[in-house]
# Entry
Amino acid sequence: MSRPYWVLDTGALLAYVQGVPAVGEALVEVADAEGTVAVPSTCLLEAYCLLDPGEHELLRMLRRNPAVRTIAPALDLDSDDEAPTIGSMARHTGRLGAAHTAWLAMINQASVITTQPDQIRVVLGDGWEILQV
# Structure
């Protein structure tokens, strides 16, 4: 699979559920270009935690989109274990989901869609492409 163009954090997932046009438009553009969007598994779990059960179906629909990939961190003690890096980044971002988002963006050279750009910029810097929704 191709590297993702966007990484959606928890706030972007909540914005999608709330019908914020910019998120849907970004997804359509990526799908039209036959690209992909990454959703960190930690952000997906955070979003489910913050939504009412009646809103869960909207996230399920998003996850069924062929352009959307949910990505869990690599947790292999004998190989590439991403837990220490993501955990350390969380100390700076203030949230585990923001750290996982920043990590995925960094390793894929992907842009980020977020409601909290300062949390992402603290580790990726001011020059990173971030769409605030």
